Amino acid sequence: MAFFWGSGYEGLGTLRYFLGHTDTEHLYHYITEIVPGTVLRGVQAQRILYGLSADDIESTDKLRIILKNRFGVSDVEIRTLQEAVEFLEEDFINGHIDTIPSISELKERLESNIFQLLEEDFIRLEPQFLKVENEQGEVVDKIHLTLIVREINNVCV
Predict the structure, then answer these.
(1) CB 137, CB 115: distance < 8 Å
(2) How many helices and strands, by DSSP H and E, does the chain display?
């Protein structure tokens, strides 16, 4: 559980090898059966937040709509804390801006909102497991993440 919490989905291949499993998908189902829902939702919320910044999860456009509505803003741009600090540092030093709440508190709020959406089953993070052949002809497990957003009457809830 600690390895999965720390490494998330990207670490499944390593964890599979470490535990002697042959199939990453089987390992994922094994982990999700024994990991409490709150822990799994926490991992998913962190991974979705990272995925919004890295743009490596399918269907995050619908989540952006939900977040814009919840925060009452016209756009949502996710940056790492380091990127945000670097982007705002000069304006902060020159007294042009003040960050209340702090950047870290905003990040916690965003993760909390994503966690709540997961808990309420409005969104789900679903891995798809693929086996591909690398240049050496070896079969390699790949995990592709898709965000599923529940819609009612073609409206994101």
Answers:
(1) no
(2) 7, 4
Instruction: Check if the beta carbon of residue 107 is closer than 8 Å to that of residue 115.
Output: no
- Mean pLDDT to the nearest integer, 5-29: 74
Q: Which of 80, 43, 44, 49 is nearest to 64 (CA)?
A: 49
Which residue, chain included where needed, has tokens 């994503």? 114
The C-alpha atoms of residue 75 and residue 105 are separated, in whole angstroms, by 19
* pTM score: 0.53
H helix or E strand, kind and range, residue 16: helix 12-19
Do 75 and 68 meet the contact criterion of CB atoms below 8 Å apart?
A: yes
Dist CA 51 CA 19 (whole Å): 27
* DSSP code at position 79: -
